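Section 3.1 - Work completed
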Amino acid sequence: MSLNLKGRSFLKLLDFSAEEIEGLLDLAADLKEKKHNHVDHRVFHGESVALIFEKTSTRTRCSFEVAASDLGLHPVYLDPSGSQIGKKESIADTARVLGRMFEGIEYRGYGQEIVDDLAKYSGVPVWNGLTNEFHPTQILADFLTIREHFGNLKGRKLVFMGDARYNMANSLMVGCAKMGMHFVGCSNERYFPDPKLIEKCRSIAAENGATIVFTTDPMKAVKHADVIYTDVWVSMGEPASAWEERIRDLSPYRVTTDIMEAAGPQCRFMHCLPAFHDLNTGIGREIYEKFGIDCMEVTDEVFESPASIVFDEAENRMHTIKAVMLATLTDV
């Protein structure tokens, strides 16, 4: 199919149809095959894209930079100190400046309204690398990975365990509703998403044969799950004092071997990374010294198990981001 996305921004999956999402996944799969077979797929000749990172990231930055380079684009990285966005210069003014210099703009940072304003005023495609509310490029990578392991998306059951209030659970719920997948959010009720977004997703899901369910019972949630997904309990920018509360509230929703066994042998474990599954990080050691636990959202046994497909998922960030850039900058 022809995607017809040239000139559009990629801000949240709610803006795209199931057919468009599937088309992006097909394009990503094709680009991945070209990459693995060392087939040159540069379609640009030195044009530039701006990468604004108010929140740092390993996977997102590397994915955008390598994807841009593979396509023949020159990426210009702006770290939290490398831009006056929102400080000495308004979002609208920044957007109008960058839109005259770059073919496209990536933004990773805080409120969704920032990336929305960049898209409104820049005149070029804007790509959401993460906001507080949504993380759409991650979901494309997740869905490509699920498709690779299961063959299809429709009818698959995905369970998100942990803090379901923010970008990852929001975006997975939207994506599942769009693609006809059954989404289960499993957490303490205090950590459920915005009820308005839940209702919106349920309405979309009903049109696509999907379901959106929330429960506080982990064993009930994971029965017959195809995928169990989790994320860190404390997000970037939150105070260290949040750890004590999250550990207390979310420890019952840690992904353990018992949880995976309850789901069944078909189940795969996914995580957008980084993950606190051992003591090999500064934060991991600090938490162990303070609270006496050697893992947080997932045990090391699950993370390193054959059921874990987190590194396939991480690689697919690059291929799906490349598809988004190519589809919104050219006719494909």
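Second construct:
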Amino acid sequence: MSTHTIDELTGFAVDLGGTKIAAAAIENGKVADVLVRRTDGNAGPLKLVAELADIARQIGFKDGDPIGVAVAGRLDSEGLWSAVNTSILADLNEQPLASELGKYLGSGVVALNDTRAAVIGEYRFGAAQNTGAAAYLTVSTGVSAGIVLNGVPLQSPNGLLGHVGFMTSRHGTRSCGSGRTGTFESIASGRAIEAKATELGFGGTTCEQVFDHAASGEKWAQQLIQDSSAAIAELCANLAASLGIERVVIGGGVGLAPGYLDRVKTHLLDEPELFRPEIVGSSLGKHSALFGALSVAVERKAKQ
């Protein structure tokens, strides 16, 4: 699928998630510099696009450099960017992302969904190599997946493919920002963990702090992480059943938290063996989408 190795990657990438915007300068496959800002989900589309362009310039991007931009949300075949969970990205509906970014960064900018970018990064250079049916599953502010089947990173015309966090779980009862009830995102995501902590009387506790409380032996925090990891194990089994996924690469701030991956593997043992894909952690860490997005940009630039 790829015409280059990771050592040949030089350029820039930006990754906009529900919590942060990260921009990286990559030289010969190494992250040379990184800038991180918090995502203002209420900023509106025009301000978000300007923010993406500004952070790219600040990291050193110049006209003509290859640059890939990965974004949370739905990016359709026409390049129109929309939110699915409107509690994370508000007032975002059919924004012409690539063309708007082109006004700031030139016509060579490549835009794609963040988990699709991440699975491309992991499939080409990381933990999803050497498998024909892989998913990159981010468990972070939200829950979503990038899918590779037979060497092809999948996408759908409406851009909804991979938003598996909005599938429903047998354990789900809560609503989420997608408008659906009982979703995996409403149980397993970082925002869901924080919301549940608030319900239990621990308002203001961040997801990271919940993990700290769990490590200290506090039962309420341990239960929240158990609920999240059990839901993600169920989701992994669903990916195996629906798409024949053989390996799930887990990333994201929750997914890569200490001990989380082992919990998912333990819960997956409750499923029949046929529905237990291999579970591995992201080998590119928090840079999966950055490497994937830049890889696509480099590939496209080489064809021009």
